[in-house]
From TrEMBL:
UniProt cross-references to Gene3D superfamilies, sorted A to Z: HRDC domain (1.10.150.80), Ribonuclease H-like superfamily/Ribonuclease H (3.30.420.10)
InterPro entries assigned: 3'-5'_exonuclease_dom (IPR002562), Exosome-assoc_fac_Rrp6_N (IPR012588), HRDC-like_sf (IPR010997), HRDC_dom (IPR002121), HRDC_dom_sf (IPR044876), RNaseH-like_sf (IPR012337), RNaseH_sf (IPR036397), Rrp6-like (IPR045092)
Keywords, comma-separated and alphabetical: Cytoplasm, DNA damage, DNA repair, Exonuclease, Exosome, Hydrolase, Isopeptide bond, Magnesium, Metal-binding, Nuclease, Nucleus, Phosphoprotein, RNA-binding, rRNA processing, Ubl conjugation
An example molecular function term from Gene Ontology annotations: 3'-5'-RNA exonuclease activity
Cofactor: Mg(2+)
Family label: Belongs to the exosome component 10/RRP6 family.
Domain HRDC: 461-541
Chain spans, region Disordered: 1-28, 695-732
Superkingdom per UniProt: Eukaryota
Name assigned to this protein: Exosome complex component 10
Length: 749
């Protein structure tokens, strides 16, 4: 880690330690530091500076998401992240710790790396204790200073991790972490914490078993339709667009003022603009709000972490929020701002209930307001700033007329229900259901690909379907890793085409994609291997019944299927997962056994149930000789999996046992390692913590003292910020320290 002073300047590099008021020591404690005091001061300064610097980086889940949606920033993060990991690796290696910090192959990398840091802390602390035992005459304060030195090392490593964390999209995009939406309820914050908790428990009693229940479930479940919706409204004409003030809000102050204004209204219209092409989870860029009098456009990128203040008016049950097509807006509000909606009216739902034929907003605007809305900015890049005037106008128009449209639709709903509020009630209820939607991160499961497959009209054979499945997994993995949308990595239609054509050559894959997506071009060989893998499985017809779960009898694929059969880079030590090739072998073996059974039975003239099934499979098996015969359309029965006499049952069970055993072993090993690391760490941390806490008050130098440039100890290693860490960073070998400095030395604090 590049040393720097806490005021942001770089430490002057020199091999000589000098001090203005003391004689240069002939015997340095370690190169560049005349005594322990100087070293500790420097260490603390470096830690403070690093912590400050990391705090200046775009915060995770905040501006960070916005920056990450730009490839330039991603590249920068990747390079800096690698440098940090390399430095950490060297540091750890130097102290004899396991240091595979640079293994980027797993989505869980960050978790594992953190475990490595915990382990390293353990090793370092053990060394401290060991060294302390070698110096029986040492004063307690000296033990402390030594400990501090090591602590500096540990803290530096931890800071590195924190910084690296910021460079990671892994956590955000992984499917292993739940998306934590803000569940704070502003109204609960006004009462004492214990009481708030109690109230919340009472409210959510029915949902206590589900800790991830909707925070406004109770309110929404008990919400009744506002009385005034029970009467046919007199539509209130909108103000001409040109005469309406449209305020652009990009400061917290203005946002708070807007929230206060909204809190006093009884209704307002809302819309969002979102960017989803160059980001895996997408990012909400703009929020438009209209009251009867004014329009507001909120810069949701600038105010991303502050948008939550709007939760107050958005969840106020006495205020109706009017949206058009709120399905995604509700999710985006949760995902990006932790904002929920209570009491909403969706004009899209109203249009549907009226059977208008076309339910889009531009159609409603044409019908009710005679406005030709130009939807050409719908898919514009809403991240750009400053927003061009045309885009701002477009955004304003999306909510400006909405309250009037809401009036007109309600009036029509009354007319359609013979003056009764029944249809309004239906729309309002449907809207309420939309508010109950919970944002969940896109999760990758073994069957995810089937959802997409079923939506397509194509009918694939087993090889094509396997290719589709492998491509789907590859695409998901790439999108998460690169923080891109799946559509950017490989659009659906191209993925279908590759799976359908099963190109034999890499160029064939390119031919299926026009224009070829950058990541496809970059990973052409990987994709080629996947297609090859798919071509190797037995060719079977996939019947319509099996479209539901065509590989139901097959063992589940692990993440390892994303890697080639000989690529073990993703495997942890001692772990031998069953490769896809092995799985295929097993499947093939299963088929062979069944075929053989069928043949034997043929000879004897008797067919057992299993043999009959085997025969059926044989018959449905498409090979060069049989594919021209009429197919009996018999497939592997799902029941075979549960039929103990079937070979498939045996194979399936065998695999299940193996994989279960494997999983148990892994889980146990991980638990043990984790507990041990935790035990050691907690033990040492607690032993030392009390003493340090009391000593720290006397010994911690005042920050300004540490931060003064001229007083900052001078590091011995010449470092350049741009230099390669492998050459720039050489950890000091503490075993070479001059321990004589400890004997009889006066502690200077
Ligand atoms: P709108 O509700 O029309 O203002 O759209 C809100 C956001 O939804 C836009 O900013 C787009 O990100 C997204 N969106 C709207 N229409 C489409 C579409 N046809 N395809 C993909 N995304 C869309
Ligand atoms: Mn919208
Ligand atoms: Zn819009």
């Amino acid at each position: 880690m590049a040393a720097s002073t806490s005021d942001g300047g770089s430490v002057k590099q020199s091999n000589n330690s000098t001090s203005e008021d003391t004689e240069p020591s002939t015997e340095e404690f370690c190169p560049g530091f005349k005594d322990v005091d100087a070293f500790v001061k420097h260490g603390l300064g470096a830690v403070v500076a690093a912590t400050k610097a990391s705090a200046c980086l775009p915060q995770a889940g905040d501006e960070f998401d916005f920056y990450r949606s730009f490839p330039g920033f991603q590249d920068f993060c990747a390079i800096q992240g690698d440098r940090l990991l390399q430095t950490m690796s060297q540091l750890m290696q130097h102290y004899g710790c396991s240091s595979l910090m640079k293994d980027r192959n797993k989505l869980t990398g960050l978790e594992d790396r953190f475990d490595l840091v915990v382990e390293s802390n353990d090793v370092v602390l053990e060394k401290v204790v060991g060294m302390a035992e070698q110096l029986p005459l040492m004063k307690p304060n000296l033990v402390f200073t030594m400990w501090t030195r090591w602590l500096c090392v540990c803290v530096c490593v931890c800071v590195c991790v924190c910084m690296h964390r910021l460079f990671c999209k892994e956590l955000r995009n992984s499917h292993r972490y739940i998306y934590l939406c803000n569940k704070e309820r502003p109204e609960d914050l006004d009462v004492p914490a214990a009481l708030a908790d109690f109230i919340h428990q009472l409210r959510t009693q029915e949902h206590m078993d589900d800790m991830f229940s909707h925070p406004y479930q109770y309110e929404l479940d008990h919400l009744v339709m506002p009385q005034h919706l029970g009467h046919k409204p007199e539509p209130q004409m909108y103000k001409p667009l040109a005469e309406t003030s449209c305020k652009f809000i990009d400061t917290l102050e203005d946002l708070v003022a807007l929230n206060e204004k909204l809190a006093k209204t009884t209704e307002f219209a809302v819309d969002l603009e979102h960017h989803s092409y160059r980001s895996f989870l997408g990012i909400t860029c703009l929020m438009q709000i209209s009251t009867r009098e004014e329009d507001f456009i909120i810069d949701a990128l600038e105010l991303r972490s502050e948008m939550n203040v709007l939760n107050e008016s958005f969840t106020d049950p006495t205020i109706i929020k009017v949206f058009h097509g709120a399905d995604l807006d509700i999710e985006w509000l949760q995902k990006d701002f932790g904002v929920y909606v209570v009491n909403m009216f969706d004009t899209h739902q109203a249009a549907r209930s009226l059977n208008l034929g076309r339910n889009s907003l531009d159609h409603l605007l044409k019908v009710f307001c005679d406005v030709d809305s130009n939807k050409r900015y719908q898919l514009a890049d809403w991240r750009i700033r400053p927003l061009p005037g045309e885009m701002l106008q477009y955004a304003q128009a999306d909510t400006h007329y909405l309250l009037y449209v809401y009036d007109r639709l309600r009036a029509d709903l009354f007319d359609a229900a013979n003056g009764q509020p029944s249809l309004v009630q239906v729309v309002w209820s449907k809207s309420k259901d939309l508010c109950l939607k919970k944002y969940v991160k896109p999760i990758f499961t073994e069957d995810s690909y089937m959802e997409l497959y079923r939506k397509q009209k194509k009918s694939f054979n087993s090889q094509q379907l396997m290719a589709f499945r492998l491509l789907y997994s590859w695409r998901d993995k790439m999108a998460r890793e690169e923080d891109e949308s799946t559509g950017y990595v490989l659009p659906n239609h191209m993925m279908m085409k590759i799976a359908e054509e099963l190109p034999k050559e890499p160029q064939g894959i390119v031919a299926c994609c026009n224009p070829t997506p950058p990541l496809v071009r970059q990973q052409l060989n990987e994709l080629h291997q996947l297609i090859k893998q798919a071509r190797e499985i037995p060719l079977l017809k996939v019947s319509h019944a099996e479209r539901a779960a065509p590989f139901g009898v097959w063992p589940q694929l692990s993440e390892s299927t994303l890697f080639g059969p000989h690529d073990t880079s993703h495997c942890s030590f001692n772990r031998q997962p069953i490769t896809e090739t092995q799985l295929d072998d097993m499947r093939y073996f299963g088929f062979c056994c069944l075929l053989k059974e069928g043949e034997d039975a043929d000879n004897s003239g008797h067919l057992t149930v299993a043999q009959q099934k085997a025969r059926n499979i044989t018959d449905s098996f498409e090979n060069p000789f049989r594919m021209y015969l009429p197919s009996k359309d018999i497939h592997i029965s799902k029941n075979a999996k549960y039929d103990p006499s079937s070979k498939i049952y045996e194979i399936s069970n065998q695999w299940k046992l193996q994989s279960l055993e494997q999983q148990q072993k892994e889980a146990q090993a991980k638990r043990q390692a984790h507990e041990q690391a935790k035990k050691h760490n907690i033990k040492y941390m607690w032993q030392k913590r009390e003493r340090i806490a009391s000593e720290a008050r006397e010994v911690t130098p005042k920050p300004n003292k540490v931060m003064k440039r001229e007083e900052t100890p001078i590091a011995s290693n010449k470092q350049s910020e741009d230099s390669n860490p492998s050459t720039a960073f050489t950890p000091y070998d503490y075993s070479q320290s001059n321990f004589k400095v400890f004997t009889g030395m006066r502690v200077p604090f």
